[in-house]
């Protein structure tokens, strides 16, 4: 069980931007919290765009330009 935690911690260290966050002066838990926060924001934005069905577009479907005639 301990080996599993060690391997999981190593994978998090190697496969996330955790090393660069700590190099920027953030502590381990601050960097983890920052990553969790950005992930939850991404998931929230993903679900918001999926529920409205518009994605990132503004929803304008009318014609643009023209002479107005």
Q: Indicate the overall shape.
A: extended
SS field, number of helical segments: 3
Question: Helical amount among residues, as a percent range?
Answer: 55-70%
Strand content is under 5%
Mean pLDDT: 77
Poorly predicted runs: none
What structural class do helix, strand and pairing data support?
Answer: mainly alpha
Count the beta strands: 0
Order of helices and strands: HHH
Largest sheet, described in full?
none
Termini Cα gap: 74 Å
Radius of gyration (Å): 21 Å
Describe what you observe in this structure.
- It is a single chain.
- The protein has 3 helices and no strands.
- It has helices at residues 2-15, 18-23, 28-52.
- The termini are far apart.
- The model has no long low-confidence stretch (mean pLDDT 77).
- By secondary structure, it is mainly α.
- It is extended and about 45 Å long.
Topology, pairings included?
Blueprint: H1 2-15, H2 18-23, H3 28-52
Please name the defining characteristics of this protein.
single chain, 69 residues, mainly alpha, 3 helices, extended
Short description:
This protein is mostly helical and 69 residues long. It is 65% helix and 0% strand.
